[in-house]
Amino acid sequence: MNIFGLTIKQLKSAILKKKISIQEITKETIKNIQKYNPQLNAWITITEKRMLLEATNLEKKYFKNIKNLPLLGIPYGVKNIFNIKNYITLVGSKIFKKNKPAIKDAWTINKLLQSGALLTGALNMDAYAYGFTTENSDYGPTRNPHDHKRIAGGSSGGSAAAVSAGLIPFSLGTDTNGSIRVPASLCGIFGLKPTFGRISRNGVHVFSSSLDHVGHFARCVEDLALVYNVLCGRDIQDCFQSSYSDNSMYNFNCIKKGAKGLKCAVLGGFFKKWCDKHANLAVKKVAQSLNIQEEIILPEAIIARISAFIITASEAGNNYLPYLRKSLKMDSYSYPRLLAGSMIPNTWYIQAQRFRRIFQKIVASIFKKIDILIAPSTPCSATLIGQENMIINNTNFSPRVAMGLLTQPISFIGLPVCSVPLMTDKKLPIGIQIIASPFKEINALRIAWELEKKEILLKPRNIRL
């Protein structure tokens, strides 16, 4: 049985109907990864022995009536920022290669294990999670399955490419300033960044303490929602997790309500100005499909982005200060940025955090009248690997910095966002952000499902590698 590109529902159905065994899925997945990863460079580490053991344990329990496990026999991967027991968490950098292996799994990996999922390994990323292209990895750039000459986006580029290629149905990533939404956009898949504090970060390497989010990628809305349900839950060991993070489970029928009763608006101004015509056409297509008439302008968005830069640089710089002091061989792209961040004056950081509270109140007032905001996920489609510049609105930007131009103001205040994929006239994917109010992930998923149902989104495909 060919398992390339199958959804969670399709794979689980095949297992329950005994068309394929969990062991067969495991061996086929490993074979596919070993065959195609040299071209993609999505995996840094393949956890083959662990995956085979998990499959064996599952099949033993399977005969004890565990058919209701939501992710029974489903393979997945995680960004190499999540702790995997008995493996070194490399975080895309060789400075950690002499660290001791993790003594236990990240909280999210443990949750997935309990739901029957099979871990394939650790996926490539920008070093330290600092970048939007997955080029500044000590393990080489990840290549976009739609065009191997192009970037996969970052910093969770390996996670997005693995799912986009059809090698696994879903993967985990993290998002500080856009690191799930950017690669989801460029690789043409769905990405969910939940509300800040919704999903536990226990066992995830810290980059920016007050901005890091855990989220995931999938090839359809139903899979995205199913994995989200599994990842929800309270972890008392994560002091950053919100008290709202209970075991809220959504029946998929709730998501099938679609856009009914939800008021949507398009974000204009900053979000319209700083993207190319293809991104604006994608927004227009979504707006027409949802019959959106209203446009909202957030003049403070540019200040929000600047403030996000200050907070990210300051927190990351101070988190990595011990490594900077040791003068370890960090990559030439991250080192000066982290060093500069560690020297940002406290007054700048405090001022940025003060503005954060102001911006939260401004956006909260909008959500009293509007349920969903629509904006591009990236300013343009994937650029070429090694490309130093891109032109947006007659202005020269570096893709490594500016691919997160439109995502930073949103994650700055921790809003839940689902990035949905469309295809441009250039035959390259681009994503649209479906932005909801805090802890209303279900509204974002409802709109994503509505757009998927109307067949205006890019359908998942098995990329010919």
TrEMBL record:
Location of the Amidase domain: 24-441
Keywords: Transferase
Single GO term (MF): transferase activity
Entry superkingdom: Bacteria
Protein name per UniProt: Glu-tRNAGln amidotransferase A subunit
Organism: Candidatus Tachikawaea gelatinosa
This protein's encoding gene: gatA
